[in-house]
Amino acid sequence: MIKLAPSILSADFSNLLSDIKVVEDAGCEYLHIDVMDGHFVPNITIGPPVINALKGKIDMVFDVHLMIENPDKYIEAFSDAGADLIVVHQEACTHLHRTIQSIKALGKKAGVALNPATPIETIKHIIHDIDMVLIMTVNPGFGGQKFIESMIPKIKELKSLCLKENVNIDIQVDGGITPENVKKVVSAGANIIVAGSAIFGSNDIKQTVKLFRENSVV
Fold first, then answer.
1. Number of domains in the chain
2. pTM of the model
3. Which domain holds residue 155?
4. 24, 39, 138, 214: which has the highest count of C-beta atoms within 10 A?
């Protein structure tokens, strides 16, 4: 069974808590929180104060995706704000193993995100140290982008690496995923699905969540 992680990047920020309550009531397990700094990606979103304001009001896993330069400088702040899972980009970390250990030392789960052009090979040697890999199926920075079909073999490659290394980690996929294409993503090996505009932009969020689950059965 997949887990769904609606991305608040596509929520109505003027009614953020209300929007999140809707996806929580629809049964979504994770809240995907995209943090952008205007440097690593060409957009700026939110920081620790917003996460802190939401913590305690929502009973979902706070899945914080740091699309920022120098993530080591901010890991403790996001941990203190209420992150349960902190995801950093391989491309942004000079010493990735050290960054992961810093997250773990704070008692949080650690994930590593890979941009579309970044090979799976780059995380082979830290696969045993992490809880999740996030495969980006769009180039990060903006919501509502089209799914990059060539990422399907990459998801399969990651799943094969996990089996070969005998590690049981989550495979999260983010970017352009809809009820219409979710099955191919899950078939390739993903078990946590990030969806932004497909969920928050839906006229009937509960029905859309139901469709995601029904269509992901393989």
1. 1
2. 0.96
3. 3-215
4. 138
